[in-house]
Give the backbone structure.
Amino acid sequence: MTFHTRILIYLKEGVLDTQGKTVAKSLTDSGYSNLRNARVGKYIQLWIDADSREKAYEEADRMCDDLLVNELIEDYSIEVEEQ
Amino acid sequence: MHTAVVIFPGSNCDRDVIHAVSEITGSVVVPVWHKDTAIPTSTDLVIIPGGFSYGDYLRCGAMAARSPIMASVKKHASQGKLVLGICNGFQILTESKLLPGAMLANKTLTFICKQCFLKVEKTDIPFTLKYKNDQIVQFPIAHHEGLYFLPQDSLREIEQNGQVVFRYCTSSGEISEDGNSNGSLNNIAGIVNRQGNVLGLMPHPERASERIMGGTDGALMWNSIKTWIDREGA
């Protein structure tokens, strides 16, 4: 089975997100006065062959550990969906 | 003195550093391709040069840190031999966990290419022994992701251990926001590991090694390393 895996990577709380700040300022300046905060991250899609949803999740998690995420500055979440 | 310069797809300061090191020290300098699995056994110093390895995709230095050659760079470092990462090379050293920290986008969100002043705060390591304590030097910087970051507790730790070697400053040596164009925490421009044999810095000493380049402050780094190697018989 192939699983469509979506990984969201974002800077940890407390890590200066200059892009997020700049985007927020631009939106506020454009009149969106109800905007409280903006943070900018990365969205990675992976298609993984695995026997089960759990196995696909584990594999994606390992990939995050090995390369996709720098745990010093980033947090991430994984969503898995059977194709 | 034998030097190896590791080249990744996208490295672009390799020739500059090969020229500077061989010209100043007379060292034999060998380029090593990132897919090689070994650096020459006679190597005293490994340099990871600046550039945009793997197009800076994902995170600067992330893919290069996982290149085949890096296992032997780590082995070289674990034997107490010298490793120097400049600019993208510094990013690669943090991504390989040879040095603590991570680099974020400059506070300006722009690529900064300019001369900057640095204070040399540590001169008891092979890379800086020819500098005077608190000497102000001028090296250029050229990067987009150079804001040095570490969580507060780890930052305190490297400060307490005296691992900060270079700090951005003003022309008069003041450590302030004015001199800190990329916004690095504690104005950090370069750090060393605890053992003192792995140094990373964002500014480019190889671009400040000859008078024709506008300054020779960087030449002292190559002379420091040569002096140390000659003395240690490494």
Strands of chain A lie at 2-11, 41-49, 74-82. The two ends of chain A are 8 Å apart (CA to CA). Chain A has one domain: 2-82.
